Amino acid sequence: MHKYKVLAKMLTRQINQHQWLNGEKLPSIRELSSKYGYSINTVVHALRELEAQSIVEASFKRGYFVKNKVSQHQQTMTLSHDLALVKVNLPVLFYDVMATGAAFDILPKSEQISADNAIVALNRIINRVTRNQPNDFAMYYDQPLGEPMLRQQLSLRYRHRGASITEEQFCITSGCQHALFLSLLCTTKPGDNVAVESPAFYGVLQALEQLNLNIIEIPSCSETGLKVDALEEALMKWQVKVCVVTPNFATPTGACMPIKHQLKLLALANEYHFTIIEDDIYGDMSFSHLRSPLKALDENSHVILCGSMSKALSKDLRIGWVVGGQFQSQLVRLKLATSLATSRAQQQGLAIFMSDGGYRRHLQKLMVNLAHQKQQLISAINKHLPSSVLYTNPEGGNSLWVALPETVDSHQLYLKAKAFGITLTPGQLFSVSEHYPHYLRMSFNHSMTSKRLVALKTLGALITEVESPS
Hints:
By secondary structure, this protein is of the alpha+beta class. The protein has helices at 3-16, 29-36, 40-52, 92-98, 117-132, 134-139, 148-160, 176-187, 202-210, 228-237, 259-272, 328-338, 344-355, 358-384, 410-418, 450-467; strands at residues 56-59, 63-66, 78-79, 85-87, 170-173, 193-198, 214-221, 225-226, 242-245, 275-279, 303-308, 320-323, 390-391, 399-403, 425-426, 439-443.
């Protein structure tokens, strides 16, 4: 047998044994040559053989990657339900899950997490900034809009993503949830109707409940997001003041709205005179190309943009922003009333971190890791959960939307798993009308360690137990 065929067979076996996962980059040609003792030409020939067999695929100037294979578990989910106008009442389950402080980890605090170099660098910068100006920070608040140097860096970041937003248009908030709350507070009054893509981010549902607002849950597709035709149907039935949407990697599905859907959404806002609140918290978290925010297409100031780096950088960094357009002055006043100010040291430290390229480098590394962890989770689901379990396969974000057999109630599964120290995020958290009783959000925010793998095996056994009780 030719040498290149021997090597190709060896690499195929290792891929089948999950040494490299779907979508994962193989070592470079030189690294493979050195590791296996074959010439460069033999390695190239072997890789071309694997490419011809659709086992790997080449990416120009990037190398060879294991070709993604569509699993029988992977599904595009059309999440349909009847439109209804209801008041928001969150279940006790919401507060129970939040009490764990670990809604993105199936096995919280199971292992010591090694320090991330980017977080260490950011904290050093913040500490240095604090040491250099201790009295200034102790005696004075920041400007109402927030630190100019951070707003300038945010402007540059959004310009890189295709949105022209000046630093004067940003107002710094205490996280994205704060930005969303302020946006709802300034655009609605108690009793108003708000359209929300469904399944919905539970933080938005919490804000709607606190503000005594009615909700219309708009069905969505797990790939293309909010169904704009369904929104139009709702607009014909009810007066809608606000629509809350996440165009890029919506939680929990990871859906991304196509441009044509975004343009139709903006056209509806213009026709029916409602405000769009864009949650852009996952906007930076794409595995491939940069994605522009909906705000980049907003010519008539219908969109309020909200964001933060809590998902892409650190949940402990309680810094967000809002771009309010026509509502900006009111948003600034509400910010002063609800939080007065945001840490100047954190703002300046983050601005320096961004200007030095720290955030860009961190993001590049993070997305490679998350893509790998997504494939780890998918492989583990395929191996250890029942074949009746389905899931989405997003191109960014940090979560899968998982459909359990219809006989399995995810709340009951949550309670059973909790006894084993396993934390689940049941589908009931993402709707106020119990639309998703047999769904889960599963995060790939953490690597699939041996302990998490055991937890997933236990979960598979629990699903089988609930699905087929003796």
